[in-house]
Amino acid sequence: MPSILVYAELSGGKVAATSLELMTKARELGDVYVVALGSGAKEAAASLGKHGAKVVHVNDDKAFDDYIAEPATDAIASLYEKEKPDLILFGFTPDSREVAGRLAARLGTGLISNANDVVSNSGGFVAKVPYFGGAKVASMKANGKPAIVLVRPKSFEVSESGGAAEVKQLDISVADSSKRAHITERVVEASEKVKLEEARVVISGGRGMGGPQNFPLLEDLASALGGAVGASRAVVDAGWVPYSMQVGQTGKSVRPGVYIAVGISGAMQHTVGMKTSKVIIAINKDAEAPIMKMADLGVVGDALKIVPALTAAVKAKKNG
Amino acid sequence: MPLFRRSDNGCSALKIVVTVKQVPDPNSTLTLEADNTISREKEVVLDPGDECGVEEGLQLKEAHGGEVVIVSMGPERAKDGLRKGLSMGADRGVLISDPQLAGADALLTARVLAAAIKAEEPDLVICATESYDGSTGMVPPMLAELLGFPQLTFAKKVEIDGSTVKVHRQTADGYQVVEASTPALITVTAAIAEPRYASLKGIMAARSKEIKQVSLGDLGVEKSEPAETIEGVVDAETRKAGEVIEDDGSAVERIVKVLAEAKVI
Q: How many domains does chain A have?
């Protein structure tokens, strides 16, 4: 059996959903070992065991919480030397990719990022990587030892397999020379009402919204539907809305029951983050926009008229 | 010569390296070649994210004194991207160009950039968080590791005070304040600064600015085995085409019907 090491990202002491998704795939591929670092690492082991970890290597030094990438890189590199896993899996998330990048450079191996699946193949691993807006999928055989693969969030369903992990203390003291990029303060600006990644309805706006002044129209519809508002990279880059709302390859991946794309043309950057939504509705002035070719219902028209009318209709139906 | 590295306010002047590359124009539609690679024959432009990096570099130089060097890896035509950065105001350019680098993966890219940047002995390296075409953001952390620098990432604001660099690091629900000593590598988001337009004077001045061209051999870097071998490419499962309707006043009714069928209302 190949040995698979999963890097469990902890957030607020809990295992991130993306890491649990990785567990579903990892236990298909081989024996699963997990490394969990920082506050809550020991407590996280129970949940990781339920999701298929044989062993969880833990170290709850606060340095892992407070310094970017370097302490975690040291810990995983030292664990790699001892355990020599065949494959190291990371979520393709902002925090994990920073650790994975440093680790790959330190070990002198390459990595494959942005995968949405991994399969075993004659003793090695092949990652499936969407590109060209998700229209194509490349099968990439990992040449590195270890193979390092970063998998997009929402690629697998979280599921428990039962069981309990053996918890092993990872003996490493974080060197001062790795305590450099120091997180001295955490500022919460906007607490989302409904989390974008967890919403059953997502309404996203793009350039076709005309300007930031029209985004409240989407907020109104979202609150009528109990959903969340997202955005395309174009309008985030233009400063209309914060980065936290970005859906797409570089933003969040979402998989809601219904995705409503308003004034979004459907650039590949965007669609790769929402194309697995169960139902897609697009509202756009341009009948030829790429989003129309993937929507279950495409409406050609003026979003600024349709959205408020839709909000009113949804409210009427709920109250009626 | 300490004088050379000092600005008027007494703070150390900064040597800043900004990494840049060219990407297919984000406003154009990409096409695929017969072999399933993305066509590189398209109009290419300086990566818009890199323009923000150059702008931030220039603003730091204007505040603290120093020099902005832009470094790129790419074919001969990548000089156009460097020239754009020089016309914005960067002082000089370095182009790493070598036929062996065609199709270089992230680690090889990071290795050659690291070799070229080490020679510059910068205080600060600025990268875009990720490129517009690849959008994987893997090169900056690799580069930081190979340079032996701390990485301060997703910066939407940067402050330098003496040898301390402080950034506001974008997070899902706000930001973190992150501090480190220089030398350091930072990655910047598009929110960091609005790139300036090159003035006519800047464009004229850029023509005579130096672009040093180096090869793998010059850098003493050997080509490494790529991280992956592409075994095949298939069409992704596509969603079946739905219905497209013109809004003749009945669209809202149709949307409500779809929402009801999906059981969200």
A: 2
- From chain B, pick out residues whose CB is under 8 angstroms from the CB of A317: 256, 260, 265
Question: Which residues fall within 8 angstroms of residue A140, CB to CB, at 6 or more apart?
Answer: A112, A115, A126, A127, A128, A129, B228, B229, B230, B231
pLDDT in tens, B23-58: 887 767 777 787 777 776 667 889 989 999 999 999
> How many domains does chain B fold into?
1
Q: Roughly how many angstroms between the first and final C-alpha of chain B, as a whole number?
A: 72
User: A189 in a domain, yes or no?
Assistant: no
- Nearest Cα of chain A lies from the Cα of B86 at a distance, in angstroms, of 23
Q: Can you give the residue range of the structural domain that contains A287?
A: 196-319
Q: Which of A128-137, B25-34, B152-161 has the lowest mean pLDDT?
A: B25-34
pLDDT digits (tens, 9 = 90+) for B177-220: 999 999 999 999 988 989 999 999 999 999 999 999 999 999 99
Residue bearing the bigger pLDDT, B26 or A62:
A62
Residue of B nearest to A290 (CA): B29
Output the pLDDT for position B237.
Answer: 79
How much of chain A exceeds pLDDT 90, in percent? Answer: 80
Q: Which residue, among B25, B159, B173, B243, would best test binding to A if mutated, counting the most A CBs under 10 Å from its CB?
A: B173
Q: Which pLDDT belongs to residue A133?
A: 67
* CATH number, domain with residue B190: 3.40.50.620
- Furthest-apart CA pair in chain A: how many Å? 65
Domain-embedded: residue A185: no
Best of A90, A93, A95, A183 to substitute, by most chain B Cβ atoms within 10 angstroms, is: A183
pLDDT recorded at residue B4: 42
In a domain, B263, yes or no: no
The DSSP annotation for A202-219 comes to EEEE-GGG-SGGGHHHHH
8 Å CB contact of B141 and A100: yes
Shared domain check, A141 and A34? yes
Give the separation between CA A151 and CA A41, rounded to whole angstroms. 21
**Rounded distance, CA B73 to CA B94, Å?**
8
* Residue B75 maps to a domain: yes
CB nearest B151 (choices: A181, A239, A318): A181
